[in-house]
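Review form for a predicted model. The reviewer records the input and the model, then writes brief findings.
Reviewer: anonymous (R2)
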Amino acid sequence: MRYTKQRKSYNCGPVAILNAMRWAGQNENLSSIEEKCKCEFPYGTQPKDLNAAIDYYKKDLLVSYKRINPSIDNIKNHLRKGGIILYRYLYYVDNKVKGHYSVIDGLSRSEKSFYTVNQYGLGKARQSVREKMFINEYIYNARTKTLPNIAWFIRMKNEI
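Model under review:
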């Protein structure tokens, strides 16, 4: 599968939706998704706007449900069933809360690594992340900070 790499510092939400649509075999336009997400420089997309855009773009193909601070077992179980996860995680830079959206689209055979898409924003489009690092970045931050991480668990409607 060919995913789209994030090229702007603030459009991770629309790029995550675009990549979820590519995963589902759909070809959508990034600028249309940015508009639907109300994505604006420098802050990007708010979770409520991303949620509305997911509802709009999933059409009759996808099913999604939102979870707050999902556990590693929730994530692994969903991936084992062939789904993907659009994830918003929070982190601190210079004592300011920042957020980032990325896609988690698989597990390694050993289940010791996760495959993520645009995990680090302007880095590689898809990469493998060891479970320990994944837990530190996605799960640990959710447990130690006051603001929640949000995950949209997505799968094809015909796989329910």
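Findings: The mean pLDDT is 86.
Further findings: The radius of gyration is 14 Å.
Recommendation: see findings above.
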